[in-house]
Amino acid sequence: MLKGANKREPKDLWQEPFVPASAWRPCADQRNWERSEGNNGYILVTANGGINQQRVAVCNAVMVARLLNSTLVIPRFLYSSVWRDASQFSDIYQEEHFINYLTPDIRIVKELPKDLRSLDLEAIGSVVTDEDIMKEAKPRFYLKMILPILFKNRVVHFLGFGNRLAFDPIPFQLQRLRCRCNFHALQFVPKIQETGALLLQRLRQRAGDTGPLDHYLIGPSAVSNKKESSSRAKKPSRYLAVHLRFEIDMVAHSLCEFGGGEEERQELEAYREIHFPALTQIKKTTKLPSPAELRSEGLCPLTPEEAILLLAALGFKRKTHIFVAGSQIYGGQSRLAALTSLYPKLVTKEKLLSSTELEPFMNFSSQLAALDFIGSTAADAFAMTDSGSQFSSLVSGFRIYYGGGKMPTIRPNKRRLASIFLKNNTIEWRVFEQRVRKAIRQTKHVQTRPKARSIYRYPRCKECMCRTD
Q1: Whole-number Å distance between alpha carbons of 465 and 316
Q2: Which of 137, 124, 130, 140 is nearest to 41 (CA)?
Q3: Quick one: which of 137, 146, 68, 57 has its CA closest to 107?
Q4: Where in or outside the cell (predicted)?
Q5: Residue 37 banded pLDDT, cuts 50, 70, 90
């Protein structure tokens, strides 16, 4: 059935619709306002989640600080029992660049003034949790509910701050500031950039060429790598990056089943009881859709085996170089074996970087995820298996913003694919191939940001990018 992996590749496999995609160029760096002096007190943010949720929270905090004419204290990151990472802002991002780049927009300091540090913020009502803020809250919420606290206590501490700011309606310059933070102000620290440069060099078979996004991802390391490479270096290898969103947290939260029988069900239920107690409680009190119903609606994560079927049906050859981001796959190496049997040139960062090179990042999942972000964003083509993934959204948005119309992203419509996969045992490979290609081709069109959707994922909007035609 998988003999299609050796056919000639379709012409558009490694391409975006270039003409409409290249009509957009980055312009979130353009400013048209005076600097905010931050006179209305201080905003503390302790962001929760992994590196992707934290990044979004930081950008939202920047926007709220400007909205409230307040001073932002360098954000902190909450230690999570899921991620188990003690990394703080300066372990991942260049603190001085962040402060200096955003100085024309807002005032940023590294810590609270001495007279505010000793305050019991919870006792005086200055701690605001995610329970206190509705999801996708509008700017007027912050003006009405948060600004009075700043006037009274001079400080507000947002604890969590996940997904607590709407994408619409937002004033033009404030939305642009949010883009400016994500695409310009947040740069990885040299340690991550240097190791990221090694990763890219090896993904491209140690060739000296740099990709169009390297400068924005690895900074000066992109230039030094080019200088150090041999003038006789062979042509860089084209590679596909795949984000397999199939970690145990995703698998357990989905409430789907993946062929592991009773042992799998017990393992995932035990994980849910520890990490998703609210979901466990809902299961006991509410009739939820069955795993089969969830799968038919496209609500289950694609398994690594399904991802490989997808790539083969699209026409990627057996010799394709594939970089898999996020190697903590549920089911471990045995599940990855299905991928490597069809695509032997499949690698992870753990295969390309030595244990010595990876040692500074061990036990820091966010810093390891930053390396995956670099490897995925710089790829010649990027395939996501879950369009709702924050990681995939940030990667695809970065590729749109800086890619110049040359960085294709494969976004599956999981509902369409579910109906195709459910029939894959009863249809010919040729028919399966045609249906998969049609489903993916329909997601490849160039579109402006839909209303209320993420500017990080869809930066083609007047606040973030400018049209050249």
Answers
A1: 31
A2: 124
A3: 68
A4: Membrane
A5: very high
Please give the structure tokens belonging to residue 446: 């160039």
Nearest residue to 142 via CA among 48, 41, 51: 41
Residues 327-342: b if buried by 16+ CB within 10 A, e if exposed:
bebbbeeebbebbeeb
* CA angle (425, 428, 431) in 5-degree steps: 115
Single-letter code of the amino acid located at 341: S
Helices (H), 68-159: 89-92, 95-102, 114-117, 139-141, 147-153
User: In angstroms, what is the C-alpha Rg of the chain?
Assistant: 23
Token look-up 């062979």 returns: 234
pLDDT digits (tens, 9 = 90+) for 41-90: 999 999 998 899 999 999 999 999 999 999 999 999 998 766 678 999 99
Would you list the domain boundaries of the chain? 3-24+189-245+301-467, 42-171, 248-296
Instruction: Give the separation between CA 417 and CA 409, rounded to whole angstroms.
Output: 17
